[in-house]
Specification:
Largest sheet: 9 strands, mixed
Structural class: alpha/beta
Oligomer: single chain
CATH class of the largest domain: Alpha Beta
Helix content: 25-40%
Number of helices: 11
CATH topology of the largest domain: Aminopeptidase
Number of domains: 2
Radius of gyration: 24 Å
Distance between the termini: 25 Å
Shape: globular
Length: 464
C-alpha cells in the first residue's frame, strides 16, 4: 500500500500555511527547552486565547458551562487544557496527550567542584541518550534555583549571543587509541559527562576560606554577584543542561527543522494549536501535556500521577456535581491520541527498519497501532475498530497519514503514555510525527508532517 508524499498537496506557491506554522513551532522549541519553559509559554498563550485558571474558577464558586476554556497546571511542569463541549462530560472527551520532557543532562544536587584548576559541574543524564553524542557541543544551562526563603531564581545561560556557553570535553584523537576500542555505550561514561564552567582563580586574597579551590571560588563569586545564590542553593535547584542555540531550517529547500527536543514537543505544540483552532466541539476537547515520560511517566508531574483524574473530577463537580459513576463513564467513553514521535526511515540505517511498516518523512501524521519492544512488551496495541474510525476522520478531512512500528521486531522498541490512559478504559492509539536523530541533541523533523499533525489533531477533536 502506497501513500502520497504530503508535499504534493502543497505545490510551490501554496505552501505559506505549512511554512508559517513551521516558523511558529521553530520559535517555540528555540525558546522552550525545559518542561517549565513550555508550561510558562503555553499558559501565556492560553490566557491570551481566553483560557482561565481552574484555581480561579474554583475560588470564585461559579459553574462551568459549554464553551468555557480552562487550564490547570501542576508544579509548573504539567499542563491540562480543556474546551468544554456541547455534549455532557459523561459522553467522554477527545484527548490529545503528549509529553514535554526531553533527554538531557541534569545537574546533581552537589554539582560544583574543582580539579586541576578547572571548575566543573557534575551531571546525571536524563532519559535514553547515546552519551558520546553529548561531548564537544556548546551547551546551555536552563532551570530554576529555589532558595530557602522560597525565592525562585530562573536560570537561562548560553542562549543569547553575548552569553557564554558550556560543554563536556572529549579526548583528542591523537590519544584515543584505547577509547576507540571500547563499545559505543562505554566510549563516554556517565560519570564523565561533567560540564566545564571556569578556569580563572579567585583573586581576593583576604578571603582565606576560598584559597584552596580558587577557580571554584571564582565561579561561586560570579554566581553570588549575578544571581545572589550560594553553593548550598544547588541542593534545591533543578538545572538542565541542553544544547545551546536556536532551532534552524534544515536543507536547501528549508523543508525540515533541526532542533533540540522535537521528542516530544513536535507533538505537544500542534496538539495545543489544534485545541485552539478546533474551538467548541461536540465533545470536550483536551490537550494534556505531561512530564517524566522519558523516565517512565513517574512522579507527581508524570502521566502516572492522579492529577489529570483529579482535574476532571473538579471540572465535573463545577458542571453540576461530581458522581463516581458519571466520572467513570466520562473517562471510559473518552478517545485519545497519545501523541508521541515515531522513528523516521533513514536510508543510512535501513537495516533496522521494515520498509512496509515504518514512517517516512513527508508522508504526514503517523499512527502506531502498537509500540513496546520484542513481542509488543509494554505497548497499548489499539483496537482495529478505533483505528477504522480514525482512518475515516483523516480521509474525510484530507489529512495525510501513515502507519508505522518502531523498527524491526527484534531490534528494540520503546513506550509512550498510551497504556496509562488506556487503564481508564479509554480508546487510545499512539500518533505523532516522524523524527530523524531521535534522542540526539539535535533532532530533525519535516515541516509538512508537523502541519499535517496539527490538521489531523484538529479533525480528531471535532469528529472523534
Amino acid at each position: 500500500m502506497e501513500r502520497k508524499n504530503a508535499w504534493k498537496k502543497y505545490p510551490e506557491g501554496e505552501r505559506e500555511a505549512v511554512f508559517a506554522f513551521g516558523e511558529q513551532y521553530r520559535k517555540f522549541i528555540s525558546d522552550c527547552k525545559t518542561e517549565r519553559e513550555c508550561v510558562t509559554e503555553l499558559v501565556a498563550q492560553a490566557r491570551a486565547a481566553g483560557f482561565e485558571d481552574l484555581k480561579d474558577i474554583l475560588a470564585s464558586g461559579r459553574t462551568i458551562k459549554t464553551g468555557d476554556r480552562i487550564y490547570a497546571e501542576n508544579m509548573g511542569k504539567l499542563l491540562a487544557l480543556f474546551v468544554i463541549g456541547k455534549q455532557p462530560l459523561e459522553q467522554g472527551m477527545n484527548i490529545l496527550g503528549a509529553h514535554i520532557d526531553s533527554p538531557r543532562l541534569d545537574l546533581k544536587q552537589v554539582p560544583l567542584y574543582e580539579d586541576t584548576e578547572l571548575a566543573l559541574l557534575d551531571t546525571h543524564y536524563y532519559g535514553g541518550v547515546k552519551k558520546y553524542q553529548w561531548v564537544a557541543l556548546p551547551l546551555a544551562l536552563h532551570g530554576v534555583i529555589v532558595k530557602k526563603d522560597g525565592t525562585k531564581v530562573n536560570v537561562n545561560v548560553g542562549e543569547k549571543d553575548e552569553d557564554p556557553v558550556f560543554g563536556v570535553s572529549d579526548l583528542l584523537i591523537h590519544l584515543a587509541a584505547d577509547q576507540l576500542e571500547k563499545k559505543a555505550a562505554k566510549v563516554i561514561e556517565g560519570e564523565n559527562l561533567d560540564v566545564l564552567v571556569g578556569s580563572i582563580p579567585f583573586e581576593k586574597e583576604e578571603d582565606k576560606e576560598k584559597a584552596k579551590e580558587t577557580v571554584k571560588a571564582n565561579v561561586l563569586n560570579i554566581l553570588k554577584e549575578q544571581y545572589n545564590i550560594e553553593e548550598d542553593d544547588f541542593l534545591s535547584a533543578e538545572i538542565e543542561v541542553v544544547p545551546a542555540g536556536k532551532a534552524r531550517d534544515y536543507g536547501f529547500d528549508r523543508s525540515m527543522i533541526m532542533g533540540y527536543g522535537h521528542d516530544d514537543r513536535v507533538c505537544a505544540y500542534p496538539s495545543f494549536a489544534a485545541l485552539l483552532e478546533a474551538g467548541v466541539c461536540e465533545k470536550t476537547g483536551v490537550c494534556l501535556l505531561v512530564d517524566k515520560e522519558e523516565i517512565g511517566s513517574v512522579g507527581a508531574t508524570g502521566m502516572q500521577s492522579q492529577f489529570f483524574a483529579y482535574t476532571v473530577a473538579e471540572i465535573m463537580n463545577k458542571m453540576g456535581g461530581y458522581d463516581q459513576i458519571i466520572f467513570n463513564r466520562a473517562m471510559s467513553s473518552s478517545k485519545v491520541l497519545s501523541s508521541d514521535v515515531s522513528a523516521a526511515f533513514d536510508p543510512l540505517y535501513a537495516s533496522v527498519m521494515e520498509k512496509k511498516n515504518c514512517a517516512y518523512f513527508g508522508n504526514g501524521l503517523v499512527f502506531n497501532k502498537y509500540t513496546g519492544s520484542r513481542g509488543k512488551g509494554g505497548s497499548n496495541d489499539a483496537n482495529p475498530e478505533y483505528m477504522a474510525k480514525l482512518r475515516k476522520i483523516m480521509d474525510d478531512n484530507d489529512v495525510s497519514f501513515q502507519t508505522s512500528e518502531l523498527g524491526k521486531v527484534d531490534q528494540g522498541g520503546g513506550g509512550t503514555i498510551a497504556y496509562i490512559l488506556a487503564n481508564y478504559n479509554m480508546s487510545v492509539i499512539d500518533s505523532g510525527v516522524a523524527v530523524l536523530n531521535m534522542h540526539a541533541p539535535w533532532e530533525i523533523i519535516s515541516k509538512v508532517d508537523l502541519y499535517e499533525a496539527k490538521r489531523g489533531y484538529t479533525a480528531f477533536l471535532k469528529e472523534a
